[in-house]
Amino acid sequence: MRRAWNRSPLKRGVRWLMLLTVVNVGNKIMKRALLYLFVVLLTSIPDLRVLRAAQDYQGRPVPITAMGPKRPGPRTSFTTGGGIWDQLRMVVRDRDAWLDVWKRIYSRGPGHGPYPELPPLPEIDFSREMVVVAAMGRRPSTSYAIIIDSAYERNDYRLEVVVRSVENRRGCMAMAMMTAPIDIVRLPKTERSVIFREIEVVPDCQ
Fold first, then answer.
1. Single pTM value for the model
2. Residue 111 region, left (φ>0) first, then alpha (ψ -120 to 50), else beta?
3. Among residues 70, 80, 87, 161, which one has the fewest Cβ atoms lying within 10 Å of its Cβ?
4. Is there a contact between 109 and 83 (Cβ–Cβ < 8 Å)?
């Protein structure tokens, strides 16, 4: 088993990422790339153990659209370096609220304004769509992620949004640095009340 792990692409990828981290520790763009690659490796681990799983879903699936650039491989968080440091589940139904949360995402943290290089606010037609934001809160390493997986119109006239949190508390394959994972999706506007169903997974580092 140990030999197979030593020969695996995952292990080689981790070694290369560690080397790049040492060489490029001062490069802001490289740091963001490394964060993304670590999350991809993390969410690609096949042996994920579910700790708190959702019950059977009821109702009709609702299409969701992940925001941010399209990337190859499995879905990852919108960002792992956001400025929202507390745990948050938020439904955004108008432009003013959207601008406010966008500035919070691209800030240095609570009590600070947005970065001078604030990216343009993505345009949303709030007459037809709404936005859901899930923030994991501050974490001590790159081994954490949060992903809005799906949404369902339940039979009790509520909208259920499924949020998956990757809680890699052992820190396997991680860099020790503060992160704050955030995910954002668009979905069709609804007047239904929104509830969140949490799924927590922990990678098996063995």
1. 0.72
2. left
3. 70
4. yes
